[in-house]
Design goal:
The structure is a single chain. Helices cover 42% and strands 16% of the residues. By secondary structure, the chain is α+β, with helices and mostly antiparallel strands. The strands form three sheets. Strands 1, 2, 3, 4, 5 and 6 form a six-stranded antiparallel beta sheet that branches. Strand 8 and strand 9 form a beta hairpin. Helix 4 runs parallel beside helix 9, helix 6 packs antiparallel against helix 9 and helix 9 packs antiparallel against helix 10. It is globular and about 55 Å long.
Length: 322
């Protein structure tokens, strides 16, 4: 999440009036994340609650994909998963257009995102991921993964070596290694709808219970085990990627398998899938680092945090997922 678009109080009040949620009381911009503008909205006098997340879609989202994302939220919530529903406007539409940009109002869910996840929290998240995969094995709507390893390798390959070197001297070598992952990527493993971006800040927890999965705007139809690998890479290290937390990584996978067992082929592929997960974030963080407008209220994230994870999986992955 982030804030790129500046909306004044009058603009926000007028926009919120399109939904039957009462009168705007406050709106606070949310600086975390990188792709969209977000506000925490509080209202009074509404029948659908008093706190919501307003999202204006800015980057990496094709407007044609938005109905998939918002329908998915509603369908997962209806299936009993801890996912916020979309608030439809007075005309029954899931989003509004504002100055050429789409804006949606999403249910606010209680909970706190863990900054240093415990093994028990990782176990709970693993189980919820597996529940989501099982619920969407035969989902009638599909979306291609636009951040697959071939696409991410192409993103890194599109930058000059000097630009990558300016971020970190080791980044050009990672860009050169990306093609090998893309070329060996498996295509015949079980698929479902996946979140594909389930960092701790996209999970809300009340103690050791998952109260919300949020920010589904990279969700797509892809390999279930890849989604687990993405989450493993996001949860099992310190923020810099230098320290691997073996208990968190183990319990995340155990939690997943408490609901859905990995096949032998999936387990064998996990080291490569984890490297591909790291490639995805190296590519997107590099792109954001080089292309984000200087005036945006955004905290840039270091792609080398995931290069270090990538190297760890190259070295230790076979033993890690045996």
């Amino acid at each position: 999440m982030a804030v790129y678009t500046d909306l004044g109080a009058e603009d926000l009040a007028r926009l919120i009036g399109a939904w039957d949620v009462g009168t705007l009381v406050s709106a606070k911009g949310i600086a975390e994340g990188i792709s969209n503008s977000n506000w925490l909205i509080e209202t009074s006098g509404g029948a659908q609650g008093s706190r919501f997340i307003l999202t204006m879609y800015e980057r990496r989202i094709d407007l044609a994909d938005l109905p998939f994302f918002l329908r998915l939220l509603d369908d997962l919530a209806a299936a009993g998963l801890p996912v916020p529903r979309t608030i439809h406007d007075r005309a029954g539409e899931p989003f509004r257009m504002v100055e050429g940009k789409a804006a949606a109002l999403i249910e606010f869910l209680p909970g706190v995102s863990p900054t240093a996840p415990s093994p028990a929290q990782a176990f709970a998240v693993g189980a919820v991921i597996a529940r989501m995969h099982e619920a969407t094995r035969d989902y009638p709507h599909a979306r291609a993964n636009t951040l697959s390893p071939p696409e991410c390798a192409a993103v890194l390959g599109g930058f000059e070596a000097d630009a990558l070197h300016a971020i970190d001297p080791d980044l050009p070598r990672a860009a050169a290694d990306a093609a090998a992952i893309a070329e060996s990527w498996p295509t015949d493993l079980p698929r479902s709808v996946i979140h594909s971006d389930l960092f701790p800040d996209n999970v809300l927890m009340l103690g050791e219970r998952v109260s919300g999965l949020i920010d589904f705007y990279f969700s797509c139809t892809d390999l279930m085990a890849y989604d687990l690998a993405v989450t493993h890479a996001a949860w099992s290290f310190d923020k810099t990627g230098r320290i691997y937390r073996a208990d968190v990584g183990r319990d995340l996978v155990d939690g997943y398998q408490s609901v859905r067992q990995l096949s032998d082929a999936e387990r064998e592929a996990m080291p490569l899938l984890a490297q591909g997960a790291c490639l995805r974030f190296v590519a997107s963080r590099t792109e954001d680092w080089l292309d984000t407008p200087a005036a945006a209220l955004v905290t840039r994230k270091d792609p080398m945090d995931f290069v270090r994870r990538w190297r760890f999986y190259q070295k230790e992955g076979n033993a890690l997922f045996a």
